[in-house]
Every structure is written in structure tokens, then in C-alpha cells.
Amino acid sequence: MTRNERFEKILMLLRDGELIRARDVAARLGVSERTIWRDMATLVDYGVPIEGERGVGYILRRPVALPPLVLTHDEMAALRHLLRLAEAHVDTRIGSGARTLAAKIRAVMPPDPEDDAPI
Questions:
Q1: Are the CB atoms for 10 and 39 separated by under 8 Å?
Q2: pLDDT value, residue 76
Q3: Inter-residue contact 51 to 58 (CB < 8 Å)
Q4: How many whole angstroms from its chain centre is CA 4?
Q5: Which end is more exposed in the chain, N or C (fewer Cβ atoms within 10 Å of the end residue's Cβ)?
Q6: Domain 3-60 class?
Q7: What's the CA gap between 43 and 98, in Å, rounded?
């Protein structure tokens, strides 16, 4: 599991708003407690609203989500184009993040009407 995948799983565990101990997160993800401590510090440095400390536990104080957006047809076309470009990025951190972000965005996007257009 990559570090970014671990960050995503940590955020999923924190989403319920309950206090969770580093030892429990570490056991679920198959890493050391020390790794979780470092990951939590990194996530906080990235601006994720995690509160807590070693030996006590961690909690996500407010959800990490974007508000709903209403996009025009042209904005949707631009978003689809940008997702394709981002997924092709060769940097492993950027490319991996772009692919997982694109999958999340595509999961909630309406179908592309151009996909159904006759050729």
C-alpha cells in the first residue's frame, strides 16, 4: 500500500467523527503505530482538520469534502479533459493522486453525452 493510499484509508477511518487510537489504525492498516503518528502529523501539515495526540487518539473535527457544484456543459467538458491529462502524469505521487481523484469525480459525474453520439 502506498503512502497516499494509507492517507486515504486513515481519512476513511476518521470520517465517522469518533476518536480512534493510533494503535487501532495501525492494526487495521498493517503498519506500525509510529507510522500512523507520522502520517497524522503529515495530514495535519497538509491542512486536514485532525485533532489529537499520541497516546490519546485522533478525531476529524470537520468533514473533508467539497461542497456540491453546479457545472455548465463547457465546464464538464473541461473537467473531463483535465482529468485525462492529470491521469497521464508520469510523476508517481501526482499521477496516483490524479487517478484516484479522477475515479472519485467520475463516480458522481453524469454520463458524457458525447459518448452516445454516433460516429
A1: yes
A2: 84
A3: yes
A4: 8
A5: C
A6: mainly alpha
A7: 18
Domain boundaries, the chain: 3-60, 73-112
Cell, residue 110? 453524469
Q: What is the DSSP string of 57-112?
A: EEEESS---PPP----HHHHHHHHHHHHHHHT--SHHHHHHHHHHHHHHHHHSPPP
100, 89 contact by CB (below 8 A): no
Residue 41 identity? A
CA distance 93 to 90: 9
Could you report the per-residue pLDDT of 61-89, keeping only the tens digit for each? Answer: 876 666 677 888 888 888 888 888 887 87
The model scores a pTM over 0.85 = no
Q: Which residue has the cell 485525462?
A: 84
AA identity, residue 17: G
d(CA 25, CA 52): 14
